[in-house]
Known about the structure:
Blueprint (H helix, E strand, L loop, with lengths): L2 H20 L12 H8 L3 H13 L3 E3 L5 E3 L14 H7 L4 E12 L1 H8 L6 E11 L2 E11 L16 H7 L4 E11 L3 H7 L7 E10 L4 E9 L15
Antiparallel strand pairs: 1-2, 3-4, 4-5, 5-8, 6-7, 7-8
Helix pairs in contact: 1-3, 2-3
GO biological process, one term: negative regulation of DNA-templated transcription
Protein name: HTH-type transcriptional repressor yvoA
Keywords: DNA-binding, Transcription, Transcription regulation
Amino acid sequence: MKTACKRMITQQVSEILRIEIEDGDLYPGTKIPTDTELAEMFGVQKQIVRTAIEVLVKEGLLKYISDKEVYVLGHKIERNMEKLEGFTQTMVDRNMKPSFRIVSKYLRMAGNLYGNMFGIKPEEPIFYIKRMCYADGDSISLEELYIPHYLIPKMVGIDLSVFSVYEVYEMYGIHLAEAEQTLDLVRPSLNDAKLLGIDAGTPVMLFQSLTYDTDGRAIEFNRNYVRGDKCNFNVQFSDKR
């Protein structure tokens, strides 16, 4: 196949994938088909598919996770470091490698408690996500997240071991503004203590926060059990009188 012909076909494949991303057929946070599958779909060589993918990676529409796994970003992620930070960015800022393990993830009804919290009906669905958070391979905290289904309907298909929750919000145009947070000292359940790698009865710090976006919507309730032997917290106060 001549070079000019290869270049034209590569551009066509890139454009088809770009349109599928922009139209939502390939949505942010999900894995695209493999090189082999795409080559069969388009009837072209795998090298042409790889080159087309490289184009979209450079544009910030796709992201390589490994040689064989490519995920959709949708658009380039821009992070305002002066706003709320998630676990991933906090660890990166400290030159540590963050990672996650999903313990459970499913849809449930909001019920009265979370319905009132999010301003939705009790019978409306919300996502429940429970995950372990690690830094350089060490267990740091256990998170429980509650997110209204209407905000990110396709959350169930997004791999949260690849993308941080904050990245998902940004990919879907949700911009965080502020959070109400409380701190307590509690003893986790036997199962949660085992997940955290601590002895039963060992107290942990419990952070509970309700986060709002720039439109004033409550978008996430977070219950975070943090190991006190792994973290400390710095709070600054100022007298503005």
